[in-house]
Structure formats: structure tokens, C-alpha cells
Amino acid sequence: MLSAKSLFQEILDNDESFRLFCSIAASGESQGGWENGRIAALVPPDERGLAPKISRHGADEDKHGRIFNALMKKRGLEPVPVPPDTDYTMLLERRGIGLAHEKLKGETPLTVQDIVTYLAHSRVTEQRASEEMELLRRHFADHPDLGRAVRMISNDEDNHLAYCHEELLRFAAAGHGRAIQRTLRECALAEIRIYRDVSLAVMAHMGRVLGWPRAKSALLAAGIHAVYAYERLGGWRRMVSLRMPERRDALGGPATTAPEFA
């Protein structure tokens, strides 16, 4: 029976597919770490109090990248180049979602609207990350090799999502509500398309590595298209709602360190 657990177990059991999976994940997390680090450095003067939380967010993403690299190293594997069609973070950036890298590479302070854009983009992408890690935690929290990594990353992603909710609500109360809702909607509708395209690309690459028969690849592609149809018809709305989280000040402390996997 084809299920999320059996699919990921198949990827996990093969060195080449596991290496591709971890390489894609590590690259995306490292890119997120760089983006958050630059945003923290460029926070406008009136919002300097937010800088430590943004830095913590970036430190967590960097840690996740190191964890995925450590999982490969434990199996004697080296990272592989990330296929461009699977590069979720870069594809989002090219679609104009979030803050442009050219702006982040400069030294001009960001505006409050830039910070609102960053938080709205993060609220959408962290929703996706939180859901994906919850799926892995459900099936692999007790796995001897992956369990600690899955639990730690999942907890971090939940913290990131809580932080985005809390800070966006603060900005909404300060008069940015319409801009927040407009930006959230634009980000969500773009994200679901890119997530579909990246999912199809990842499955195509995995299928070639694992030698999947055409019928299996077609079934997986149909499932990805079905998820997109659901999200396009209304599922995207879960990515734009805002509510005060149970985890308050979720990024108020220091980042935790990556566990050892040697």
C-alpha cells in the first residue's frame, strides 16, 4: 500500500535517494538561515527589539541544515548538487515572494513594510514546514537514526510559526492589518503553486533514482495535483489566518544546539 510512511521509508532505505533528500533539505534550511541573518542585520531602528528573534530564527535554520548534513555524514554520504527545479526557497524568491536577495545583500536598512512582508512570507512557509515535520514526527519520532532530528526540527518549526503569528498580530494592532492580509494572500497563492511544482520535481528525481514504474510515478503525481486542487479551492486559507499562539515569545531565548549523530 502506497502511503506517506512507506514512501519516505523507501527514500530513507536507499543511500542515493536519502542523500538527495537531505541535500535538498539542507540547502533550503541554510538559505533560510542566511536570509534571516541578513534581515536581522538590516532591521529598521524602530524595530531593533525584533532583531534577536530574527537572529534566533536564522540560527535555527542553520542548525537544521547542519543536522541534515550530519545525517548524511553518519551514513558516509556527501551532499549532491540540488537540482534547480527542486530549490523551493530560490523559486519563491524568483517569484517575488519575500524580500529580494539583492535588497538583503545591501546595507540599506529595511522598512517596517519590509519586515511585515518578511513575517507574512515566513508565516506561510513555516505553516508548510510545520505540517511536513509533523508528518515525519508522526511516523518517525522513534526512529533510531532520525528520531532526535525529526523531533527537534519539528519543535523549532512550531516555534517559528508561533512567532510569526504573534508578531503579525502585533503589527496588525499597529495599523498594518490590510497590508498583512494582502501580503499573506499573495504569498499563499504563490506558495501552493511552487510547492506543487517542487513536489512534482522531487518525486520525478526520486523516481529515477529508485527506478519507480511509470504507474507509481503517475499515481504520486496525481496525488500532488489533488493536493494542489484542494489548496487552490480553499485549503490555502489555513496559511493566512492569524491567532494568538499558545507558545508566547517562542523565539525569545537562545537557539538550541544541533545534536551529535556520529
Main attributes?
262 residues; mainly alpha; 8 helices; 0% strand; globular
- In DSSP terms, counting alpha (H) and pi (I) runs of 4 or more, how many helices? 8
Contiguous uncertain segments of 5+ residues = none
Question: Helix/strand-derived class?
Answer: mainly alpha
Mean pLDDT: 94
User: In what range is the share of β-strand residues?
Assistant: under 5%
Order of helices and strands: HHHHHHHH
How would you characterize this protein structure?
This protein is mainly alpha-helical and 262 residues long. The protein is built from eight helices and no strands. It is globular, with a radius of gyration of 18 Å. 39% of the residues are buried.
Summarize the structure.
With 262 residues, this protein is mainly alpha-helical. 71% of the residues lie in helices and 0% in strands. It has helices at residues 4-13, 15-41, 51-74, 88-94, 101-105, 112-140, 147-210, 214-233.
